[in-house]
Amino acid sequence: MSSTSTRTPPEQHPSSRSSTVASATGSTGHMLRRGLQISPELTRGLAVTLLLAAVMTGGRVVVPIAVQRTTDDGLLAPGGVDTAVVWQTVAWSALVVAITAAAGYLVISRLYRAAEGGLATLRRTAFRQVHDLSVLTQSTERRGSMTSRVTSDVDTISQFVQFGGVMLVISLGQIVVSTVLMLTYSPVLTLVVWCCFVPLMLVIARFQPVLGRAYLRVRERVGDVLAAVSESIGGAATIRAHHLQQRTGERIDAAVEAHRRAGVGAHIRSTMAFSSGQFLSGFTVAVVLAVGTWLAVRGDVTLGGLLAFLFLVNLFTQPVQQATETLNELQNAVAGWRRVIAVVDTPADVADPGESGVELPRGPVEVEMREVTYAYPGAEPVLRDISWRVAPGSRVAVVGETGSGKSTLVKLLTRLMDPDDGVVLLDGHDLRTVRFSSLRDRVVLVPQEGFLFDASLAENVRVGAPDADDDVIAAAVRDLGLGWWLDGLPAGLATGVGPGGENLSAGERQLVAIVRAYLADPDLLVLDEATSAVDPASEVAIQDALERLMAGRTSIAIAHRLSTAEAADEVVVVDAGRIVERGPHRELVGAGGRYARLHASWAAQQRS
């Protein structure tokens, strides 16, 4: 056996390990840059899209120019109406408008394609990261909240990316172009316009951080609603059994009300900014009309120039008003991005060493723990200085009271978590150096409550061996002595198990987990209280199948019913996170210690 020093990876220390996913921090610009890094499709071809957007912006100023030329050089020409100028202006205006419309179509279609591609990448990245998060994080983060990060939060980003992002750029370009043209007609009127709108721009700048916080609260409340609804649906049977409908309804109502308040608060703030824009737009037009009329009377501006200027004011004020709404969408999107990026950037504290990792050889596995300690965040250690060795091919039963640390041992043995101190070894190799593909091939967990997908029995069993056909699965079932069970199912392997396996009994669900494990053909079998939730008759069938499954393999069983311990080569007794006794069943019973008392209590319950 190779020697391996005990070490504590700094990122695994309980003081630095988090069990929840918070929202990412950073400025709006930082969030946008990070989002574009995750979804590079959003920037591909952006230069062409922006060029087309510039064509759109330039095309929009054609109308004011056409109005000025038609009025001054056509309708009010010194020698009378010049129809040639009018028709020429109409012709080239129509051409430019057509080009502008085509550019607009191309901009929107390119945006949608880029947005859908980028957001699909974002969803896939976030979803895969969810599966890379530690079991601790997955179990403590509310399911509905995590779901909202990958679904509705991405949708808020989509609403901005597909339209608001480039519209914001177009709006800024339109403001610049409008300002330049307004200066050519009347610097005085241009100064009037900017004096009217500078206060609005200051208000918008001040409102953005407030709106950002408001929309982040909205996204968080959406997660709360989804979590409450998801839990009520998943626990419907328990809710009905314990008559908790009113309490559950009140909890959902409270989540919905909190979301309503957050949404109303955010929209009130955004409406204030939008209404300010509308008011100042009308006010600006009125002031420009008054000052422009005065300038026209003085001869400082022509009638066509004044009309063109009024059109330009509309082109100037329109994007400013739109900018208030677009910036609201931006803050909503940034709030969603913060929550999604928080998932993507949460480090996977159980990392796969990948190609550089160890490939374990086939054969019964030797298991060893050296001075292993583990504590959940903010809590006292549940395991303290655990040291023990399991010989290859032996059967070990771990027993102890509820809360003694047995299930944590299982998570460490299967590397669903890493220890804070000490080391777990398989065949002399630190578990943290073993590549996941090898670990999952060699080590299989049979959980107390195995998850079943809403599919056929065959598809659920095939989780253990994706390439197994129905004949191989049927042969495996019969090898385990479960042919009678398969023959009794209404559609055999095609029988639908229902959501979460609700069409099967607890014992049948465990049989599925056993067949999965058998098909996976592991060298180390870890059984987490695999017979704790079934009736005695089902336990007989399960125990017989387990005997066949464990033959020739190293096995470690968390024994809830001590009949498992009676058949083991060695019994390990865990109490308050420490190993207090070890040895064969008969020796421990004869010693009259902790195990003897547990066994006597269990035997008395069996007799009663």
From TrEMBL:
Biased composition (Low complexity): 15-28
All copies of domain ABC transmembrane type-1, residue ranges: 47-332
Statement: the UniProt record of this protein carries the keyword rRNA-binding: no
Molecular function GO terms recorded: ABC-type oligopeptide transporter activity; ATP binding; ATP hydrolysis activity
A GO cellular component annotation in the UniProt record: plasma membrane
Transmembrane segments: 42-65, 85-108, 166-185, 191-211, 279-297
InterPro entries (UniProt xref): AAA+_ATPase, ABC1_TM_dom, ABC1_TM_sf, ABC_transporter-like_ATP-bd, ABC_transporter-like_CS, P-loop_NTPase, Type_1_exporter
Ranges for domain ABC transporter: 367-601
Keywords assigned: ATP-binding, Cell inner membrane, Cell membrane, Membrane, Nucleotide-binding, Transmembrane, Transmembrane helix, Transport
Subcellular location per the Swiss-Prot or TrEMBL entry: Cell membrane
Membrane topology: Multi-pass membrane protein
Pfam families: ABC_membrane (PF00664), ABC_tran (PF00005)
Signal peptide: none
PROSITE patterns: ABC_TM1F (PS50929), ABC_TRANSPORTER_1 (PS00211), ABC_TRANSPORTER_2 (PS50893)
SMART domains reported for this sequence: AAA (SM00382)
Chain residue ranges for the region called Disordered: 1-28
Gene3D superfamilies noted in UniProt: ABC transporter type 1, transmembrane domain, P-loop containing nucleotide triphosphate hydrolases
Key word Transmembrane present: yes
PANTHER family: ATP-BINDING CASSETTE SUB-FAMILY B MEMBER 10, MITOCHONDRIAL, ATP-DEPENDENT PERMEASE MDL1, MITOCHONDRIAL
Protein name per the record: Putative ABC transport system ATP-binding protein
Naturally occurring in which organism (per UniProt): Janibacter alkaliphilus
